[in-house]
Structure formats: C-alpha cells, structure tokens
Amino acid sequence: MNSVNTTITSEVTQPDEVAVPVQESKPAETIIEEGKTVGKPYSDDPKFKLRDVEVFYGDAPAIKKISLDIGRNEVIAFIGPSGCGKSTFLRCLNRMNDSIDICRVKGSLQLDDHDIYDPKRDVVELRARVGMVFQKPNPFPKSIYDNVAYGPRIHGLANRKSDLDEIVENSLRKAGLWEEVKDRLDANATGMSGGQQQRLCIARAIAVSPEVVLMDEPCSALDPIATAKVEELIAELSESYTIVIVTHSMQQAARVSHRTAYFHLGHLVEVNETNKVFTSPEHELTESYITGRFG
Amino acid sequence: MTDQRSQAEIVRQSLKRRYRKERRFRAYGIMAIAIALGALLILFTDIIGKGYTGFVKTTITMDVQLDGEMMYLDDPTDERQIKMADFVEPLVQALIKEIPGATEDDRNQVRELINPYASVTLRDALKANPDWLGTTQTMTFLTHTDVDVYVKHAGDDAYSIKLNDQQKTWVDELLERDVIETSFNDVFFSGGDSRDPSKAGILGAIVGSLLTMFVTLILSFPIGVAAAIYLEEFAPQNKFTDFIEVNINNLAAVPSIIFGLLGLAVFINLFGMPRSVPVVGGLVLTLMTLPTIIISSRAAIKSVPPSIREAAEGIGASKMQVVLHHVLPLAMPGMLTGSIIGMAQALGETAPLLLIGMVAFIVDVPDGFFDSATVLPVQVFLWAGSPELAFIERASAAIMVLLAFLISMNALAIWMRKRLERRW
C-alpha cells in the first residue's frame, strides 16, 4: 500500500453532531500512517468489504482511507474519542449520509460483493437489508404495534393480518419486549420508558428481517439496567445477524463484541479481537485510549 | 477575610441594583399589557354599547280588519287584483283605532309610524291565507325606523328624533299599553341588506362570507400545503429556490388592495368572470392567504424532529413514504393552525373585495358561488358610511357578529393545536 506519513496537527472539523474536542493531553506528535491499520482488518468471507473509504463534509475530510472487512454474524464494535468518524463511517454502511447534502463518499464499499454506492443501487432495498438503531430512541408517535408493523407493511412482507401479527410478535419476542407489552400493543409507543423505547426500535429494525443491524451508540441514553437488557439482546441477535455497534463505553465493547475497531481522527488505527485490543493493544494510540489517558 | 467581606458587600450592593432593574422591567411589561387590554376594553365597550340595540327590533301589534271593500279586493287568489289592492289603508285604520284621540284627520301622522314594508307583510300573509278576507286578524308588524330610533334612543343626543310631539305622545301611550314592543331582532339575522334600517339584515353578508371563505379554503389549503412540502422536502437547495422563498415572503407583505387590483385585472377583465361574486372574491383572497399558509406550513414541517425522518429512512421508507406517513401527520396541526389564522385574516379583509365589486348594494341572500354577494366586513363598511343614524347600530351589531366569527375561528385554531399536537 502506498502510504504517506502525515502528522496530525489540527483537528478535523465536521458539521455533524459529533463535535471534535481538542485532546490536550494526547501525545501531540503521534504519527499515524494513512490507510494503515494494525491488527486484523481483513477476513476471508466478509459481509462488508470496505476498501479505501474516504468521507468528506464539503472539503473537510472526516474519514481518511479506511479499509475493513466485517464478517458474517459478527459483532464488531467501533470505539474512539468523540469526532473520530466512527458514526460517520457507520452511516456509510446503509447510506444514511445521503440526506446530508455536503457529504461525499469515496472508495469501494461492498455488501455481499455488490457496491453500496452504485448509482443504480436502490437505497430502499439496501436499508431493508441493513437496518439501523439510533443513539436516541426514536419510536414513531404511533401505537407499539404500528411501530413494529411499519417496516413489514411498507415492504409488503405480510399479506394477511395474521402474518403481520406473527411478525410483530416474533420481533417483539426477539427484542425481549413481548412479555412487557403484549397487553398494550395499542398504547402509544412514546409513553414507554427509554429502555423499552430503544428495545422497541430494535424490534422495529429486525421486523423487516435485515441481514445487518447498525447500532449508533444504542445505550448512551439508557440507564445501566436498560443497558444490560439491550446488551443481552445484542448477544442473542448475534446468532442470526451481523451487528455493527458504535459505542463510547469500552466496557460495553468488551462485553458484546467479537472484534473491536479503534478510530482516531478519521483513521482506523487498530482492529483486532476484542480481548486482544483491551488486553494487549498493538498501537500506542489505542493503548492511550483504553487506559484512559484521553477520550 | 476583610477582602472576602468587602467582596460580599459589593455583590450585595449590585444585587440590590439588579433587583431594582428587574422590578422596573416587570413594571414596564405590566404597563404594556395594561395598555393593550385597555385598548381592547375600550373597543369592546364602545362597540357593544353602541351596537347591542342593533339586536333589538321594535314591533307593533294590532287588530287588522281585512275589509275587501276598503282594500279594493274581492279575490285574494287573483294575482292582478292583489297587485292593485290597497294594503296600507287597513293598517292605518287599525292603528287609528288603537290610538285614543286619533281621528281620520291624523291619518298621515299615524301612517308615518308604520314601517313601509308592513303592507308587503300584510299582502304576503293574505296571499298565503285567502280565507282571511273579511275577517279581523291580530298581527305584528315592524314599526317605522323613526319610531324604532325614538323607542331605543329617546334621551340620546347623538340621535335626531324625527317624530313630532303628537307622534311621540302616541308612541309613549302605545308603549305603555304594550301595543308597541321591543324584542330580539330576528329580522337582522334572516334577511339581506335593505334601504330601510329596520328591515336591513346580515344574513346575505354572512352567506356571502361563507361562500367566499369556502372557495378560499379549498384552493389555498391544498396549494399552500403542496407548495410547502415541495419546497421543504423535495426542492434542491439552490439560488432559484432561495429566490422563490424570498418572493413568497415578499408576497406576504404586499398590501391587500394590490391583490384586489390584480383580481380585477386578471379574473374580471382578462378571464371575463362576473363582478361581485364569491368565486372571484375567493380567488383574490386565495392569492392573499397563500403566502401565510406556505410560510406556516413550512415552519410546521421544519419542526418535525429529524429523528423521526431518520427512523423511517432507516427502515427503508422511500422519500414519499417518509413525507406521507410521518412528516405530514406530525406537521398537520401546525399547518391547520396557520391556515385557520390565514382564513381569519381573509374573513376580515375588505379592501381587495371593494375593487372586484363586492361592495354593491345586494338585497338578496346569495344562493351560489356565481351569485352577486357581499361579505361581512364590506357590509360593515357600507352601513358605517350610511347617512341614516339607525344604520350605525346595525354596523356595530355586524361588527360584533364578525368578531364572534373571528374569535371562534381563532379559538378553533388553539383547540386544534392543543388537541392534535403529539408529543415525541
């Protein structure tokens, strides 16, 4: 790989919600090789094959030449300090960045060997295969039933009411919510607790039977008990889905993920098996981060 | 230690000043609200004080002898005879009988107490009941407007009483014996405009207003909402859409009389549509209301949280589905509120309608969108400019009716906002 040495001297500005705080205490002159990732970024039979991905907000680069494979039925966690580009990178995987006008994506992103950013690619079909759960629980202001049934309805997955009922029940069961809400499916979803809302959002995402579920800090608005429930759920879901989770909590990454990817200022610094990242990180930036020297 | 104390002292000093400032600011605020409320109070007392008599009518009840010979009528079913017959004479005779001391010589003075339209009422009654001929019936008629004014405003210098002393004595006597009575003015709500104040009603203007508002609503709401959705959700962000946005805002600030001129030039002169009709009025008011609706609808769409959009997009909803299933239902309360306020503005609009001829004197209640009509504020304008003082109280009464419509529309807007507003 033709890599260029770059010195990080200034922070990356990006108009996304993730603002970049300057890391005062970090080793200022640490050198990252662009496009070079230590650890094990590649796998043999990947679900996602991402090569030299670059993302720009206007002219400002937010992601710099990242290459990564995401395996089948794998749980991979993205960690890193605020503003490092992990959310931006995640949102490339189902083209949620499309709605941001000034956002441009370069490089090759493939899902099952098909290009995600192919202009002919139908984004609706892509998103039906790659579901997403957001940072803040965002149920529709409708009934619990309608929230879960919305996806199957618009995609025409159920022709009869009984089929739809079954999908709703199964999704809610998988999300561990069925016992709590089975008697009040007609109640408005906005009246639920934060943890329930987030599990409902997960149920809603898996109701369309996606192959991949992207989770953007799904527990950051939840209390520890609700977080534990969601983490349990992630462990169960990993049997049938590929899960990509962005998290600020290193403990969470350690608990739920198989592999962990460390991002720093738009670079993918290190990817490895989770316990390896947390016990013997190869890169000094990763070590600084997980030992709490910054971030 | 001393340093600290002095610092605390300084803070306490400045606190006093800050609180004083705060109190002063609060006083200004209360004053401003008091002025606004005071102005409103003056407006309402003035209008209600002047206008409540507009809701009262003065009637006279008497035994009318329907003598065929006196009326030159022997067959009430004969149209020609009915037209030629004398319906004033029985009324005059009946009233002379009611007034002690009045004789045949006073007939002209007696006649001046009866409303000119009373004979029409009598004719219609006889037409409907031909067998009444030759009998005596107890019937109630409107008094002459001069009597009406005298009964209501006897001691008021603002009104000139046109009755002479003899007539005043008679009216006082009849009032005492309850031959002349005042009651709720149903005529005001059941008829159109008239040259005679006692006979003038507001129903024509109300129906005209409703027809005009209907045209305005069915045109401006869908067009406004569609424009807002397109501009907010689908239009590309470029110089051209910026230009459109600036011009929509400009349009909202154009004086309404300009829209009237536009309507006159385009709808009436160019397209050859009839004058004074609710359709043209509605079209002109649509042009006037559109910017308001577009602006408020865009604000409502903007206020839909992006998380809802993201949620729907994340499941794979297409742009159209996101808009129709999520954005539109959530923005609807705001859109409706904006539209109702726009409609209330249009309801109170006078100037553009003057230019398209809705200021004509129209007696009949309009029975369609292409029938000549006037609207409530224009009716107020017409009556307020009349030389007859009796029209002034009608104008005030009409203002009250108009205000009632406006207040109920605004209340509806508030209620809808509270009712339909969803929390997320």
UniProtKB/TrEMBL annotation, chain A:
PROSITE patterns to which the protein is assigned, alphabetical: ABC_TRANSPORTER_1 (PS00211), ABC_TRANSPORTER_2 (PS50893)
GO cellular component, one term: membrane
GO biological process, one term: phosphate ion transmembrane transport
Residues covered by the ABC transporter domain: 48-290
Organism: Marinobacter flavimaris
Protein name: Phosphate ABC transporter ATP-binding protein
Keyword line: ATP-binding, Nucleotide-binding, Phosphate transport, Transport
GO molecular function, one term: phosphate transmembrane transporter activity
InterPro entries, alphabetized: AAA+_ATPase, ABC_transporter-like_ATP-bd, ABC_transporter-like_CS, P-loop_NTPase, PstB-like
UniProtKB/TrEMBL annotation, chain B:
Primary residence: membrane
UniProt keyword terms in alphabetical order: Cell membrane, Membrane, Transmembrane, Transmembrane helix, Transport
Subcellular location: Cell inner membrane; Cell membrane
Cellular component terms (Gene Ontology): plasma membrane
CDD domains: TM_PBP2
Listed transmembrane segments: 25-44, 202-231, 251-273, 279-301, 322-344, 395-415
Annotated ABC transmembrane type-1 domain residues: 206-413
Example GO molecular function: phosphate transmembrane transporter activity
Stored Pfam families: BPD_transp_1 (PF00528), DUF3333 (PF11812)
PROSITE patterns: ABC_TM1
Origin superkingdom: Bacteria
Membrane topology: Multi-pass membrane protein
Family designation: Belongs to the binding-protein-dependent transport system permease family. CysTW subfamily.
SUPFAM superfamilies, A to Z: MetI-like
One GO BP annotation of this record: phosphate ion transmembrane transport
Protein known as: Phosphate transport system permease protein PstA
Cited InterPro entries: DUF3333 (IPR024573), MetI-like (IPR000515), MetI-like_sf (IPR035906), Phosphate_PstA (IPR005672)
